[in-house]
Structures are given as structure tokens and as C-alpha cells.
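>> received
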Amino acid sequence: MDEVKKRLVIFDMDGTLQDSSPAIANAINFVRGRLGLTPLPMGEIIAKVNDPHLNAAEYFYENERFEPVHEEWFADYFSRHHTEQIRLYDGIVPLLEELKSAGCLLAVATNAYRRSTIESLEHLEIHHYFDAIASYDDVGRGKPAPDMLHLILEELGVRPEEAIFVGDGERDRMAAQAAGIDFLMVEWGFSDHDDAIKSVEELRDRLREICSLN
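>> returned
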């Protein structure tokens, strides 16, 4: 890992900061219902969300690409139900507090739509910690493309070697690699990795070292 001191920590959102698996699965099935498709099991949806080799629009909606109406239906369901179907992972707020108090810049890079992203972060009362947010509809391509990471670096005036990206999926790892940003994989989210960080406490210890926190 690059020895340059990190001054920007970028977080994936779903599966990293928040457990939103019920909300995501139910919103996707809501869209499927509007399209006349049968619901998929939640476990199947969550297992496929981070698959970098999957055409998600084709798999979930039997469509070549995501259409604006898909976003509209997804956001409609999410807006009505996210308050009872998402929660922060334990220890996230103290971690953000420590990083912010130490002068770190913080950002979110998520394949969620911006409307859903802002609603989630505001409901969980962590929106104010972040200096930049890049979501799916802010860029031409979602992760594993590096577009949203490039957008964050440009917005905050940070070099790739000064940033670290924290995520729970292979899409996140691939995006970080393409952007030239060091990456930390975490294990408490939607994916299963042998080489991942297993707890928020372990992540905090790693970031203390990488970011040279007091």
C-alpha cells in the first residue's frame, strides 16, 4: 500500500456504512412488479448486487440498460420505506467522528441513485460528515468504472495516492484499482472475502495507521 499519508477516505455506502439489504431487495422487487416480473429472493438479489461481471439491468429488470423509469420507481419505494429498512453498522459514527476530528476529508462513492443516497445519509444523520458524494447518476458509469472516484478527487483537489477507498465488493476494488487509489475490503457487508477486514474496530486501527491519526 502506498506510503504517502492519506488525507481523504472514500467510503462505499451500502454494505460498508449501512445495512440496506432489505430496502435494496424490496425496492428492486417493487420495480420488478411494475414491470410484470416475479419477485426474486432477497438473498439472491444481495448476492448479485456486487457482481462486477453482471449486467444488473438485464438480470434484475430484463432490460439492456437502466431506464429513467426504473430509477423513478426504485426511488419512490425507497423514499417511502427506507426509514424502517436501513441501519448504520455499529461503530460507524465514532469512526467518522475520529476521522473528521483528525482533519481527514471524507467522501461517499456509491452505485445508488443520488436521491436515495442523500435520503439514506440524512436519515442516518451522517450526511454532514462528508465533503463530497458521488452517486450513480452523477457520472457516466457506475463502479467498477472509476468515474465517481475521479469526480471526488477532482472536486476535493486530492491526488490518487493521497486517498484510500473502503468498500465491501469486487466492484469497489476494481474501481479503486482503475483510479490508482489504495483499497481496503471490509467483510460485514453484502459480500464474503477471505482477505477482508472483519470489524469496524479493525478498520479504525488500519485507518489510524494509514492516515497517521493521533
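>> The CA atoms of residues 123 and 163 lie 27 Å apart.
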